Amino acid sequence: MKRIFPKLTKQIGLKEPNLEADEYEVLIWYRQGLRFGDAQAVYVLHKTEKLFTVVKYIIDSNQRGFQSAKRWKPTVTTTLALWQRLLKQNILTLPNESTVFDRLYPKSRPSPPVDTVQTGMQADGSFTVKGYRTERRRSLFTDGDSYSFELFGPNNYRVYSYSNPDAYLRDEPKCEELQNVVGILNDLNLLFRSDKLGKEQAKAINKD
Questions:
Q1: What is the value of pTM for the model shown?
Q2: Based on the number of CB atoms within 10 Å of its own CB, is 83 exposed (0-12), middle (13-18) or buried (19 or more)?
Q3: Among 77, 99, 108, 184, which is least packed by CB within 10 angstroms?
């Protein structure tokens, strides 16, 4: 089994999961462009027969490499209801970003002429190149944020990744896969909010 970041995984202190039937572990690595280190954070989701837990590690690195990782617990209790919610968002079966883009932008179909090209920096730090075409517009986002999903099951292991899913979803609002990725990340982010509204929303997604 070839892990995404084997060295960083060991430095954080994460071990190879030993899973029984119907148990899963999901690591979601967050990488921000132009930052030191392989990743700046990772969610660790662990599902057993009776429990579902989530923790988050904030990773500090500099030009010399990995420095430390701080472990954070959710501000609310996580339940199997949230795991079921994530399953409905296809967390275990989502395809890789490249497969989605091959469908959205088939290479075999001739592209109509480009009318204009514009570039610009987005609020999230990503750099955008936009070509405005007579039929449709496609944006290419570089740098910014990327997420790699590392999935462990009793007898399987797979990986898929998405870059700047929020930005691409704004351009492709009907894309179900992008909707699911952004939904998963938004749900997990809620778990670590300490404000009253955030906690209320986090409790709501953990109810049956």
A1: 0.84
A2: buried
A3: 108
